[in-house]
Amino acid sequence: MPLQVLFNKRCDFYGFELGSVACQALMKYGSAEFAGNNVLRVVSCLSPDTHFASGVKIEHAAFSFHYGNDGSGSEVIVEFNESEALGAMVLKVTVEGY
Questions:
Q1: Concatenated DSSP letters of 4-29
Q2: Is 12 domain-assigned?
Q3: How far are the Cα atoms of 41, 47, 73, 86 from residue 76, in angstroms, in the given order?
């Protein structure tokens, strides 16, 4: 019989050292029970002037935005959807560029 769990947290940074720092923060402060709040935290972390009204709940999301300045920066891709393979919600943050 497969092991059944109520929730779990895991973070893969694929050997990218700066990703390790983000993973550590998500593991320490991220919510498994209210996983949509992690999407709000990612946006607020990268865009501190962005504020969400109390009671905002994210159920699914897929968006990208530029982080940096006109001369250099990165494209940040945020996806928050249910994984059929895992049977749970998955937050994926990908950074492309420099």
A1: --S-------TT-HHHHHHHHHHHHH
A2: no
A3: 14, 11, 9, 24
Q: What is the residue range of 48's domain?
A: 17-97
Q: Does any domain span residue 69?
A: yes
- pLDDT tens over the chain, length 98 residues: 566 667 778 888 888 887 888 888 888 999 988 899 999 999 998 889 999 999 999 999 999 999 888 888 889 999 999 988 888 889 999 988 86
Residue 11 lies in a domain: no
β-pairing, 73-83 vs 61-68, is antiparallel
Record the tokens describing residue 71, joined without a space: 């001369």
* Total number of domains constituting the chain: 1
Entry pTM: 0.82
In a domain, 1, yes or no: no
Three-class secondary structure of residue 45 per DSSP = helix
